[in-house]
Every structure is written in C-alpha cells, then in structure tokens.
Amino acid sequence: PTADFEIPLRELRGLHDSNDRIRASLRKLQTTLIAARLPNGKTRTVQLLGGCDIDDDERTDGLLKYDFHRKLVPLLRHSEIYARMEMKVLTAMSSKYSLALYEALSLRINLRRSSEDITLETLRNWLSVEEGKLATWNTLRQKAIEPAVKEVNALSPFEVSIEPIKRGRKVERVRVTWAKKEPFSPSEQAAAREVNRARTGRKARVSGTVETVADRPTLTDDEIQKGYEAAAQVGARLDKHAAYSDWQNMVSSFAEPVKNPVAHFIAFCKERARSLE
Question: Fewer CB atoms near the end CB (10 Å): N or C, the chain?
C-alpha cells in the first residue's frame, strides 16, 4: 500500500484566493500517463498522480491530501530518469511535448554521442504524440517540435535542436542534437531565472513574442509599513524594503495590473512570513 501525503493549500495557492488553478493542475497530473519498460520486457503504464482530496475554497487552512499509485512508486524510486530531472523544470513546462522531449534528453544527455538521426515515427514516440495525430511534417513541426524545443532550451539545463533531413522535398528523418549548458553560463542562468519567475507572461517570453505587462506599481511608506506589520503578526520580521522590491518585480510581470496593490502587497508579505516559519 502507498502512503497518503498532505500539504496546506496556501502553500500551493500563493496569493490567489481560489483553488481553481490548483484543481486544474491536479486534473492535468491525474490524466498524465507514464510509460516505462520493465526488466521483464513488459511496458507499464500508470498515472503520474493518484487520488486527491481537496478542501473547499471557504477554508483558508484547508489541506490537499494525495497519493501515488502503488505501481508508480517503484518506478520513481529506481528510475535513473527522474533522478536527473529537476521538478522545477518539469512544473514550469506547459506542453506535454516539452515534457516528453525533456525526458528523452535526460536519458541521453550523458551518452558519448551528442546527436542522433531518427525517423519521424521515432520522433513521434519521443514526443509522445498520439497515434493518428500530427500526421504531416508541417503540423508536427508547428504543434509539437517547435514549442517543445523552445521550452526545453528556455527552461532546462539542456540545449537541443531538431533539424529535418530531406530526400528531395520529403522530410524522411530528423537530426536531434543535444548538449548540457555550461555551468553558470548566460543560457543556464537565464533558464534558472525563468523557472523561478511567475508563470504569467512565460509563454510570450519563451516564444519571443511581445506581451503587454503591467506598469511597475508604487506604494507609499505607510502602505509598505502595513505589509511589514502584517508579516510581524504572522511571526516574522521582514526586510520591508527588500520585500517591497521583490513584490514590485513580481507584479510588474503580470499581464494585468493588480486591482488592489496595497492588499496584494500585504498578502505577499504574509505569505513570505509564513514561508519563513
């Protein structure tokens, strides 16, 4: 039997008032399947996340209780793949094709070779493209390859490229090339910063498109003091100016300005204070 785990909803919810985003993320995890080859040659397919019990929105001190399927636990415990996969990178990715490509690269990143020529069918397997989906090269490239390559390059410690190999006009194979980013290199540091940023605006940043963001908000000294006092009531004395600067950086990345900056800053300070308990 597997153990039940629990986590306070406020740690997952952050500054949001509702559990809607949490519920949506849980559904995504519960409908994600892992396929693994067993030592006996059989293939095991199992849900990434098992059962979940979540309290109603009205309960500010609510809990999420969850478990993992008993057939998943040994895969996670003994898997060399997940030992090399950082959870922050996994949770930052928005595309299932990105996750699948990252997993495929994690299996190969320490091999002597750094590239491989593969068929389109093999590439579809790497990306976990469902049978019958993205049947043409153009749709496969636009819907799966390009988004996956951009996210892996932007969010992970790996660099990857996928280039078509043609015979005449027809794409018959692709060349996948990969490498680890140099430690402390600009590309590695940029990826680390991105996975620690708010998700708002990430799609535009990764794709290189322009997205309108909110102006940098300002508060008066008295309003900043309110956040400091709210944190003190929770039990922590914050550097209020550092907290104010961090809050400004966070909300300035939002697509829309916050409706009540003072209340939002107070909630931010309380949440930071709780994280220091």
Answer: N
Average pLDDT over residues 208-231: 77
CA distance 123 to 101: 9
Distance CA 227, CA 246 (A): 13
Instruction: Tell me the residue ranges of DSSP E strands in the chain.
Output: 5-8, 33-37, 43-47, 52-54, 63-66, 115-119, 158-167, 170-180
Give pLDDT, residue 14: 59
pLDDT band at 173 (very low <50, low <70, confident <90, very high): very high
| 8 Å CB contact between 25 and 35 | no
Q: In what order do the strands lie in the sheet with 63-66?
A: 5-8, 63-66, 52-54
Assigned token pair, 87: 């959870």
Asked if 218 and 174 count as a contact pair (C-beta separation under 8 A), the reply is no
CA Rg value for the chain: 22
Neighbouring CB atoms inside 10 A of 151's CB total 25
Spell out the domains of the chain, with CATH numbers in brackets: 1-78 (no CATH), 80-210 (1.10.10.10), 221-275 (no CATH)
Q: Which two tokens stand for residue 154?
A: 């932007």
Q: Residue 212: what pLDDT?
A: 45
Cα gap 200→177, rounded to integer Å: 30
Q: Which two tokens stand for residue 229?
A: 């006092």
pLDDT in tens, 82-114: 544 466 677 778 888 998 999 889 888 877 889
